[in-house]
C-alpha cells in the first residue's frame, strides 16, 4: 500500500516536540520521586515510632523455630522448623487450593457458559439458574455452608465409609486408596475448593457466554456454509475468536480466586493468611507479617498476569 | 460473619499499622483520658464471663469490670468507658497505636509480649491454663490418651505452641485444625470434626455451658498443659498510668482481703481500722502518689465490688460458667492472688 509521504517537519516543530518529550519525562520522573519519597517517609516514621515505643521489629524472627503444627500440607514441615518454612508451607497450601480452584472453575465455567447456547431449554435454564444463584451469595457464606455440610454429613472418624473399595470417607476427609499414608483431602480443603471454584465458575460462565456471543453470527454461518460440522465450527472458528475477548477478564477472575482463597482461614484451612495470623500472634510482628502477606499476594497476582498475558498474545489476531 | 466483616477486620489491622506510620506522639495517657472524659478499653469480641455484650449493648465480664473499676477511679463514673472489641490479631496493634488506653482482653502474659511489643502487663487478674474438652462418650480420662487425634484449636493465643509442645513431649502425633473464629471452632468440634477441642480452661467451660446442646455430653480433661496468666496490659513508657492500672487491680484484691464489698463500702467509711481507712481514703490519702484523689478505690469498689465479687458475678460457681475459685483465690485462702499492701 502506498502512503503519501508526510512533509518533513520544520526545525522549529522538531525542537518543540523534543521539548515536550523532555518535559513529560521530567514530570514522570517527578511523580516517581514523589511516590518513592512518600513510601520512604511512611516506612521511616513507622520504624521510628516503633523504636520510640519499644516495639521490636525486623524479619529476623523468620529464622526462629515456629513451634506450632500445621494441620495439612504438601510441603514436609514440623513444628521445630523455622517461621520462613511455615510461611512457605502456607504458601504451598494457598497454591494447592488456588491452582485446583483455577482448573476447576475454568472447566465448570466454560461448560456452563457454552451451556447457555444449548438448543435444550432445560440445559439453558439450569446454566442460567446456576450463575444467578452462585454469584449472588457471598463467598464466605458459601464456604462456611460447604464446611458445615461436609462436617455434618461425613461419617465419624472411627467408622469411615468405603465407596467402591478405594475411596474412604470420614470427618477426617476423603482419602483415595486404602493405605495409611494415602493422599487425603481434608474437609477444610474441600470446603475452600468447592466454595472458590463454584463461586468463580459463575463469573467465568458469564465471561465465556459474553465471549461466544460477541463472535459475529456471520462467522458461524460462513463456517457452516463451508460444510464444517458444528463441533469443528466451535473449535476452529468460534472459540479462537471468542478467546480474544475471554482471556483478559478471565485473568481478573483468576486473580480474584487467588485473593479470595485467603478466606480459607474461616474454615480452618492452613493457608498463607492462617499461618501469618498464627505467627503474628506469637511474635507480635504485625507490620512484618502483613507485609509478607501483601508481598506474596502481589507476587502471585503479577505472576498470573504475566502468564495470562502470554496466553492472550497467543489468542490475539496475528498480524502478518 | 460475613465476607465484609472479614475484610473489615483486615482493614482494622492494616489501619492500626498505618496509624503507627502517622502518629508521632501519643501524649500522657492519664491527661488524655481526663480530657476526653472517657477510658478506651480494648476487650474481646465475645468470651462469656470475660467480656461480652448483651442485646442492649451492655458489656459485662471480668475483663470488663477491671476497666469499669479503672474508669470509676480516674473519672468517677464506671459508665465512662468506650469499649473496643478486638480480635486477637488486632489487640497489640490497637494498644501500640494509641487506639485504646488499656487492653483487658484475656491476654496471656509472656516474655515475648512483655518485652518486645511496646507494652507492659499490669498484673494478673485470672490464672488460667490450657485444657482439652472431649465428648463424654469417648470415655477418655486423660489428655495423654489422645494419640493421633485431630484437635480443633482456636487461633490467636499461645494455644498452638502449647499444643505442639505437649504433642511432642508425649509423642502423641496430634493433628490440628486451626480456626480464627471462635464460632467456627465450636461448630467444627460439635460436629465431630475433631476428637478434642483445646483452648484455655475458662473458655472451654464457657463453650461447654453456653454452646453445647447438653453440657453433660462433654468433659474437660483434668490436665492443664500450660500456664496462662491473664491480665490487662498498657502501653510501655507511661509509668504513671501503668501504676494507676496496676494499683486499681491490687486495690480490688486488697479490698477483698479486708472484707470491703460493694454493699458495705459506704458504711465502712466510719471504720477505725487503719488499713480500711487507707484503702477508702478516710484517714490517709493513698490516691495522691498515683495522681488521683483520695476516693479512688472507694469509687471503684462502689462500681464493681472487690475482686472476689467480680469473680463470683462473672465466672464463679454460681455464674453460668461455674468455675471454681481454685488458683484464683486470695493467697490467704490457698490461691495465688497476693496483692502488695496499699500503704
Descriptive notes:
The complex is a heterodimer of chains A (320) and B (343). In chain A, 35% of the residues are buried. Chain A starts with 10 loop residues before the first helix and ends in a 5-residue tail after the last helix. In chain A, α3 crosses α5 (187-213), α5 crosses α7 (230-260) and α7 runs antiparallel to α9 (286-315). Chain A is mostly helical and 320 residues long. Chain A has helices spanning 11-52, 83-115, 121-135, 139-153, 187-213, 217-225, 230-260, 272-283, 286-315, and strands spanning 161-163, 167-170, 173-176, 184-185. Residues 22-27 of chain B have low confidence and may be disordered. In chain B, α3 crosses α9. In chain B, 38% of the residues lie in helices and 16% in strands. The chains are: A mainly alpha (320), B alpha/beta (343).
Helices, strands, pairings?
The complex is a heterodimer of chains A (320) and B (343).
Chain A: H1 11-52, H2 83-115, H3 121-135, H4 139-153, E1 161-163, E2 167-170, E3 173-176, E4 184-185, H5 187-213, H6 217-225, H7 230-260, H8 272-283, H9 286-315
Antiparallel strand pairs in A: 1-2, 2-3, 3-4
Chain B: H1 3-22, H2 29-36, E1 39-44, E2 52-53, E3 59-60, H3 62-75, E4 81-86, H4 88-96, E5 102-103, H5 111-116, E6 119-121, E7 126-128, E8 130-135, E9 150-154, H6 159-169, E10 175-179, H7 182-191, E11 196-200, H8 201-210, E12 218-220, E13 228-230, E14 233-235, H9 239-257, H10 274-280, H11 296-304, H12 307-314
Parallel strand pairs in B: 1-4, 1-5, 9-10, 9-11
Antiparallel strand pairs in B: 2-3, 5-14, 6-14, 7-13, 8-11, 8-12
Helix pairs in contact in B: 1-4, 3-9, 3-11, 9-11
> What structural class should be given to the helix and strand makeup of chain A?
mainly alpha
Q: Work out the helicity level of chain A.
A: 55-70%
Q: What does the largest sheet of chain A look like?
A: 4 strands, antiparallel
Distance between the termini of chain A: 14 Å
Strand order in the largest sheet of chain A: 1-2-3-4
Please tally the β strands of chain A and state the result. 4
Largest interface: A-B, 50 and 56 residues
Beta content of chain B comes to 15-25%
Number of strands of chain B: 14
Mean pLDDT of chain B: 89
Q: Helix and strand string of chain B, N-terminal first?
A: HHEEEHEHEHEEEEHEHEHEEEHHHH
Count of runs of 4 or more consecutive helical residues of chain A? 9
Shape of chain B: globular
Broad structural category of chain B: alpha/beta
Amino acid at each position: 500500500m502506498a502512503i503519501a509521504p508526510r512533509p518533513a517537519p520544520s526545525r522549529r516543530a522538531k525542537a518543540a516536540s523534543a521539548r515536550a518529550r523532555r518535559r513529560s519525562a521530567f514530570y514522570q520522573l517527578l511523580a516517581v520521586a514523589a511516590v518513592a519519597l512518600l513510601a520512604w517517609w511512611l516506612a521511616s516514621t513507622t520504624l521510628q515510632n516503633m523504636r520510640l515505643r519499644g516495639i521490636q521489629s525486623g524479619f529476623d524472627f523468620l529464622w526462629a523455630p515456629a513451634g506450632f503444627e500445621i494441620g495439612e500440607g504438601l510441603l514436609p514441615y514440623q513444628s521445630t522448623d523455622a517461621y520462613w518454612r511455615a510461611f512457605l508451607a502456607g504458601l504451598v497450601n494457598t497454591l494447592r487450593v488456588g491452582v485446583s480452584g483455577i482448573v476447576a472453575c475454568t472447566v465448570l465455567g466454560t461448560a456452563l457458559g457454552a451451556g447457555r447456547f444449548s438448543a435444550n431449554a432445560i440445559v439453558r435454564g439450569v446454566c442460567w439458574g446456576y450463575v444467578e444463584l452462585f454469584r449472588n451469595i457471598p463467598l464466605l457464606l458459601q464456604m462456611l455452608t460447604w464446611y458445615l455440610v461436609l462436617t455434618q454429613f461425613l461419617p465419624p472418624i472411627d467408622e469411615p465409609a468405603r465407596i467402591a473399595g478405594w475411596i474412604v470417607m470420614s470427618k477426617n476427609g476423603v482419602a483415595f486408596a486404602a493405605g495409611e499414608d494415602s493422599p487425603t483431602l481434608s474437609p477444610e480443603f474441600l470446603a475452600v475448593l468447592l466454595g472458590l471454584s463454584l463461586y468463580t465458575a459463575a463469573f467465568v460462565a458469564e465471561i465465556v457466554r459474553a465471549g461466544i456471543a460477541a463472535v459475529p453470527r456471520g462467522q458461524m454461518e460462513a463456517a457452516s456454509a463451508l460444510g464444517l460440522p458444528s463441533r469443528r465450527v466451535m473449535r476452529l472458528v468460534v472459540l479462537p475468536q471468542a478467546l480474544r475477548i475471554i482471556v483478559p477478564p478471565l485473568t481478573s477472575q483468576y486473580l480474584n480466586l487467588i485473593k479470595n482463597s485467603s478466606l480459607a482461614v474461616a474454615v480452618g484451612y492452613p493457608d498463607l493468611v492462617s499461618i501469618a495470623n498464627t505467627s503474628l500472634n506469637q511474635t507480635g510482628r504485625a507490620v512484618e507479617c502483613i507485609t509478607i502477606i501483601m508481598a506474596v499476594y502481589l507476587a502471585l497476582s503479577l505472576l498470573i498476569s504475566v502468564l495470562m498475558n502470554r496466553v492472550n498474545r497467543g489468542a490475539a489476531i496475528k498480524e502478518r | 460473619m460475613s465476607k465484609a466483616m472479614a475484610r473489615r477486620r483486615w482493614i482494622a489491622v492494616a489501619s492500626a499499622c498505618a496509624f503507627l506510620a502517622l502518629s508521632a506522639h501519643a501524649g500522657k495517657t492519664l491527661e488524655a483520658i481526663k480530657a476526653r472524659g472517657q477510658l478506651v478499653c480494648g476487650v474481646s469480641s465475645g468470651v462469656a464471663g470475660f467480656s461480652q455484650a448483651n442485646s442492649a449493648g451492655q458489656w459485662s465480664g471480668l475483663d470488663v469490670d477491671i476497666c469499669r473499676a479503672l474508669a470509676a477511679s480516674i473519672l468517677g463514673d464506671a459508665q465512662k468507658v468506650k469499649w473496643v472489641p478486638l480480635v486477637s490479631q488486632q489487640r497489640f496493634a490497637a494498644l501500640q497505636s494509641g487506639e485504646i488506653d488499656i487492653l483487658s482482653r484475656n491476654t496471656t502474659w509472656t516474655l515475648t509480649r512483655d518485652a518486645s511489643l511496646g507494652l507492659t502487663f499490669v498484673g494478673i487478674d485470672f490464672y488460667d491454663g490450657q485444657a482439652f474438652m472431649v465428648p463424654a462418650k469417648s470415655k477418655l480420662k486423660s489428655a495423654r490418651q489422645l494419640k493421633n487425634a485431630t484437635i480443633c484449636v482456636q487461633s490467636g493465643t499461645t494455644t498452638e505452641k502449647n499444643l505442639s509442645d505437649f504433642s511432642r513431649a508425649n509423642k502423641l502425633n496430634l493433628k490440628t485444625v486451626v480456626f480464627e473464629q471462635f464460632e467456627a471452632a465450636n461448630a467444627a468440634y460439635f460436629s465431630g470434626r475433631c476428637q478434642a477441642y483445646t483452648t484455655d480452661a475458662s473458655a472451654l467451660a464457657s463453650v461447654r455451658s453456653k454452646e453445647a446442646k447438653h453440657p453433660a455430653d462433654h468433659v474437660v480433661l483434668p490436665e492443664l498443659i500450660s500456664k496462662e496468666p491473664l491480665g490487662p496490659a498498657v502501653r510501655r513508657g507511661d509509668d504513671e498510668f501503668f501504676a494507676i492500672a496496676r494499683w486499681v487491680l491490687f486495690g480490688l484484691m486488697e479490698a477483698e482481703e479486708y472484707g470491703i464489698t460493694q454493699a458495705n463500702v459506704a458504711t465502712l467509711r466510719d471504720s477505725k481500722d487503719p488499713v480500711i481507712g487507707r484503702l477508702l481514703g478516710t484517714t490517709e490519702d493513698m490516691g495522691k502518689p498515683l495522681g488521683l484523689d483520695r476516693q479512688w478505690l472507694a469509687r471503684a469498689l462502689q462500681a464493681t465490688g472487690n475482686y472476689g465479687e467480680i469473680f463470683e458475678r462473672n465466672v464463679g460457681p454460681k455464674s453460668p460458667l461455674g468455675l471454681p475459685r481454685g488458683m484464683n483465690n486470695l493467697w490467704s485462702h490457698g490461691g495465688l492472688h497476693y496483692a502488695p499492701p496499699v500503704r
